[in-house]
Amino acid sequence: MNTKTKKIIVTILLSILVIAVIVILGLYIGNSTARSWIDKNILMKNVEESNLPKIALEGYKTSKIFAYSNNIAIFNDNTLTIYNQNGKRVTDINIQAEKPIFASSGDYLLIGDEGNSDLYLIYGETLQWQKEVEGQVSQICVNNNGAVGVSISGTVYKSVISMYDITGRESFKTFLSTTTATDLALSEDGKYLSFIEINTSGATIGSSVKTISVEKAKNDSGEAIIHTYKGNSDTLFLKIKYKKNKVVCFADDSIHVFSDGNDEKILDINKNINLIDINNSGYVSYVRENTVENVVELHILNIENKKDNIYNLKNTAKNIYCNEGTTAVDLGNEMHFIDTNGWLIKKYSTIKNIKEVVIGKKVVAIVYKDSIEVLSI
Questions:
Q1: pTM tops 0.85
Q2: pLDDT by residue (tens digit) across 41-60?
Q3: Which strands form 192-199's sheet, in the order they lie side by side?
Q4: DSSP track, 103-115
């Protein structure tokens, strides 16, 4: 066989391969049935609990479990034990907390002792700083750059909002005399801190979201609030989350996006929507019963371009868990992990009773009574 003939054969084989890849990719993108078959038989996305790394868990009822980045952290008896995505123990950190609450972003894990004064910031597997606040920790948040926000109660004010930089140095304080801060969030660049303010002094509970300019707060806290967003008289704001410089707000009847003083309602919550979460890095995840087609759908709504990606569920969802671009759907004996495109990352099967699921950027902790299954995503 001469060189020219070999080149022709190689060109034909490469062309066939390219066409096959294009066809398979087209089917994967455009056909949900084909995508399910490829996920199961080619990409091997189905996993079972017996095939994953395990972490032994003693005292589930007294343990607090959190996942961040590619680590799993277990708090018990004033010790935070950190494991990697292979289930290997990495380090122990002494954390004094009676009622620990957690917040994470990227490689940062923030721990506060709710109702007490201790606050700890962990970067990767190392304690970055710890401090005691003046009052009682109520709510906490951290951004990707290690800036920390905390809402404090138990002082002469109803709420005090403080912000700390990556070194643990206080950036500013804001004092609320007659209202209470029930949730707070930091922008990704650390220029803004927003909080939900609840007023219970009237006949009805009033709620609003206020945005603080960090730069202005450093100079004059009285002029620091640059935007105030108020809902209808019967709307109660519950939770907020930043995507870049936009605030995603979960209310009891709707989802809003606040930006530069503008209020955009992007979703009405009706009786067909029974599960919803805004922790998904700029996406709103919710489960909707499509009564027209008689199916259950997981919707993943992009807050910026409003694209709504849908993943069809065969059964009714018991719960959803969201973090760092991943939505986990609990279907009883199956957990489906879905990315922001509405595509399956992994399908996890079990015959045991799952207690809880916590999601980091690269790892998931599936918690049972006596062990934790470690799923890499």
A1: yes
A2: 454 567 776 779 999 998 88
A3: 180-186, 192-199, 206-213, 225-230
A4: EEETTEEEEEEBT
